[in-house]
Every structure is written in structure tokens, then in C-alpha cells.
Amino acid sequence: MTDVDDLRDLEIRMHGLERADVVYTLYYDETNNHRKLHFTANGLNVKDPGCFVLAGVAIPGGVAVPDIEELRRVLYLQPTTAEIKLTHVAKGDFIQVLRSQRLGDFLDWIEAKGLFIHYQCLDQLYWSIVDIVDSAISAADRFDLAPVLPPLKDMLNIALRRDFNTTLSLFRAFNYPAIDPKEGPRFYEALRTILQRQARHLHPVYGQMLDGLFEAAAEGDEFPFIEGTPEDGHVLIEGFDIFFRHRLTILGKSDHVLDVEEVVREKFQSFPLPSNITFRFSDSKLEPMIQLSDITAGLLGKFFNYLVLTDTAKIRNDVTALDERQKSNLAKLGAHLARAAAENRALAHRVMSLTDMAKSDLLFP
Question: Which Pfam families would you find in this protein's record (predicted)?
Fold first, then answer.
């Protein structure tokens, strides 16, 4: 067994992905792939990076590939429309796209054909900062806190995002995510200042627990995951191919058909995936199911960005103001998300804070 197999099996056991070996044909598109996320003199190279979403439709074994011409008729698309994109189905932000009749028709159609949506969502800022907590656990030798890592990471995410300008200045000053180990104590003390300033917005128990963890970490001298050399700093995400690799590896028994993404394809050529993983890149014009994946990825990108970038009060107000069609389409989306997770938890993967995941309960009570 290879190291890749060992890591895959470990993740399957840790996250209860018992159906990861079920065979599907998975089609993919993506949204919010910024290629690289890094610091600049004025902040980040992307103002609001939001969520990277790799998503599409999954066809279970034994289910036929549906005829997309039928969907084109359902959506009343012009014959001159070469391929179906999200813009042909709905336009605008998440709340606005819910007004589209075509969106509801699309969601109905893919369910009627026995297809599942699948997705991997990554909140890019959350992903970029949570190693700070993992490093503190190691530096402070507090591995007993492992069961409460998610709420501790949630507290850090809330505090740093609420004081984002200070956070950016701090990260630049300490060459994050490759700090000098000698600067580790000062780094964690600076983070404690932000936590204490934002304390009223944090859970009273977990906020204090995180502050205590950082106080203990400041006594350490090794800071794994976040230490390095000056040349390694200021880059939060070097490339997005790692997330493609993760997806294809976890669902390694399935067949994977990806929209052409040259940077990812080149990475796969330079550092090949295990030979037992079946995948190919294909032009969406020649692969109708990738066109469905464009709609799915675009819709989910808007949905997850809405969760991450919208505060709870605004979401409550938006839900109250929804018209009947918006409510119907929102319910259909919620049903698809629940259906995918019930079919196979590996089809529905989110890397987000607990607070942002909980916001979906406001949309799907």
C-alpha cells in the first residue's frame, strides 16, 4: 500500500466516508480559482477571495448519461446557444439567481434524471489561517484540545476577519505563513491582542480557551505548519491543483471528467496522480455533462460565498424578503444538498468555519 493509499484510508475513517469507494462518473467545473492567493503591498491579490468550489454532477453506475437536448428544450434555449452556461439559466448574486424559473427547471431536471450534485468547497481565508491553531496545539503541547479544534478555529476566523486590516499587517510583518521560529512568541502575543479586542464577538468559553492556548504557545520554540524562510512567506495558497488531487484521490474508484484547466493539467503532468485513478480533461463543448457542471459550480459558488461573506442578520432579513419563486428554488437547492450528502458524504465536502456552516440552517430550516 502506498503513502497516498494510507492517507486516503485515514481520511475516510476520520470523516466517516464509508461510501467513498462507490463508483460514479463525476463531471467537474470550478469557480473562484484565483490560481494563487498571496499578499501584496496593499493587502491580498484578490480583495474578497471567497470560496473556491470544485463541483458538478455525479452519475451513479447503471444510470444513463441524459440527453442534454431535452434540457435545452426545457429551458427554452435558442438553437444558436452553443453550450449551456450558468448565465443562460440565472444571473446576479445568490439571492438574485433564486428568482430564475430556469434555475428551478434545471434543478428539477437533474433530479428527475437520477443525477446528484457533488462539490468540494474551500473557504480560502479560513483554509489559510487555521494552521495557526494547529501550530499552537503543537507548540503548547496541548494535544488534549484536539476534540475542540473546530470551535477554536472558528473563534480565530471570526476575530481575524473582524479586524482584517490589522490581520493583514500582522501577517506581512511576520512573513506568514513562513514565520521565523524566533518570532513565534511575538506572533502569538500579537494574535492575542486581536482576540482580546474582539472578545465580545466570540464565544465566552472557546474565545478564552483560544487565548489561553496562544498564551501557552508563546512559550514555545517550534511552530510547525507556519514556520519557514523569507522566500516562503506571503503566499497563502500556492496553487489549486492540490484540491483537485484531493478530490480525485478520495473518490478514487470513480471516473473523473474535468473541464480543461491548463494549469492543473500541467501540474498533473509534472506530478502524476496514482495510476489507479481514472481521469481525463475534456472540452465542455464536447462534453454536455461539463456544461451542467458549469451551472452547478457557479450556483454553489454563489451560495457558499453568500454564506461566508454575509452576516447572520442580513441573511435573516434576506430570507424574510424572499418571494415564492425564490423560496421554491432555495428549497430545491437545499434538497439537492441534502440528497447528495445522504447518497455519499464524500460527494459533499466543505472546508468552512462552524459559524458559516451554521448559517445554512437559516436558509434550510
Answer: DUF3800
CA dist 288 to 29, 62, 83, 96, 293, Å? Answer: 12, 18, 8, 26, 9
- Quote the strand ranges of the chain, DSSP E: 24-31, 37-40, 43-44, 51-60, 116-123, 235-237, 255-259, 278-282, 348-351
Compute the mean pLDDT over every residue in the chain, rounded to the nearest whole number. 94
Give the SS3 label for residue 237: strand
Burial class (CB in 10 A: 0-12, 13-18, 19+), 179: buried
Domains and CATH numbers, the chain: 3-125+243-363 (3.30.420), 130-235 (no CATH)
Question: How do residues 211-247 score in pLDDT, each as one tens digit?
Answer: 999 999 999 999 999 999 888 888 999 888 999 999 9
pTM: 0.94
